[in-house]
Amino acid sequence: MKVYKNIMKIRQINSQIEYAVELLKAGELVAFPTETVYGLGADAGNQIALNKIFKVKGRPKNHPLILHIASISQIENYAVNVPDLAYKLAEKFWPGPLTLILERGENTSKLLTGQQDTVALRIPNHPVALALLEGFGGAIAAPSANRFGRISPTTAKHVEDEFGKNIALILDGGASQVGLESTILNLSSKQLQILRPGQVSSKQLAKLIGYQPLTASQYETTIKSPGMLKSHYSPLTPSSLKSRIELQKIIKKQDTNIGIICHSIEPDGLDNSIKIENNPATYAQKLYASLRQLDRLDLNHIYIEEPESNSDWLAIKDRLLRATQ
Fold first, then answer.
1. Looking at the domain covering 239-323, what would its CATH class be?
2. Distance CA 36, CA 146 (A)
3. pTM value?
4. Exposed/middle/buried for residue 180 (C-beta within 10 Å: 0-12, 13-18, 19+)
């Protein structure tokens, strides 16, 4: 009986994916799961559909979109002068949470690239996303499926909360396993630059390429990329980062109209408090869902314990700094 239920579930998912492909080809928006966060997808070759993304999200037209593709062989459909290193990185990290910035191909719309001469590409590591891309046959442009600047969605319910019936379909693939947006690596300059940290770390990249790519504090760039705004990933509730000692003092006051997210201390039974396991992978996976949970409660403030100051927590700290501006 269990096997039968699984077969029925697979059939249902396949039917939904086929419907999603039809909608994308008709110029509609489809939200779909990836291992990082849920994406709001449109046909990358349809200008009308792309404009819908910007309108629905409230996203500025100069903010580029990431193109999701099904195979490495599709890179040169959208990029030119692709360095050998791009293929080495793709072979190692794709499908996975790494986005590569490359020189834009002549036929790649500047609407996709924020009017820049670079394009962002990745292959997501999620069975539903991969099946959708395979069925569609081309690139799907997909920023995170939330209103611009707000908390990224890691479940189908988060997407529904954001957009309701303003998009044609939401494919439910369960909770995102990574929970933070992809690492973005710029290959269009002479020296590699990490434009946005993510699960694929600088150490992992250095192991493959032989040297450490530059990080945000080490360079200036004119390249625009998702996730580089000072304020981003933000709850509507005012929020701030606090040290462990500062947070303990706040907790002792027992204010009932605040929210707490911590990882190394006990919130002592305070209402509206969430303790996430003190492990960067688990913390990343649960962060956005925790922020959304507290953001629904009409609180005066959300206080978040500062993450560790080491490379394992770099992507988490990046998101929290932007979320609490």
1. alpha beta
2. 14
3. 0.93
4. buried
